Amino acid sequence: MPGVVCQLSMWIYNSKNFGGDFMSTKLIWSPEKLKDSDQYKKLIKFINHETNYTENDLVIKNKSYLLCAIRQFAHAMSYEIVPNYVFLGNFWNRNHGTIMHSVKIISGLDGIKTNDPIINGLNDLVSKYRKVQTALRFEETEAYNLRPNLPNQ
Length: 153
What we know:
There is one protein chain. This protein has helices spanning 2-18, 24-28, 31-36, 38-51, 55-59, 65-81, 85-91, 96-109, 117-133. By secondary structure, it is mainly α. The chain is globular, with a radius of gyration of 17 Å.
């Protein structure tokens, strides 16, 4: 019975937010459509500009602390574009639980200051991306010229 309730609530969520049935997120988004969306292109351009990591760096299985933090940022921000853990897990070549964890970690930072320079840099990155996200022209924002204090690897 719990599985039926979960499916029903997901169907209601999708019906309200996407105007479709239970499988509507699969019909609306495809990996090609996400890669072609302006929001995704802005996100990747922002990450590349701020951290010098490319889209391919975010997909590979490298487990350096800094790259994992940047990857979590990419997962959480792409969740705001497509709120579907399973789809994003497949898109980023990760388990959907990894995407859920990334969203939880990034949303939990919310201005926390610590002794860890990477966490402080992630906070700066998130707040700067929020400013840039609302701008119509990416390069014209004042936040684009302010680099976060991420330590070099």
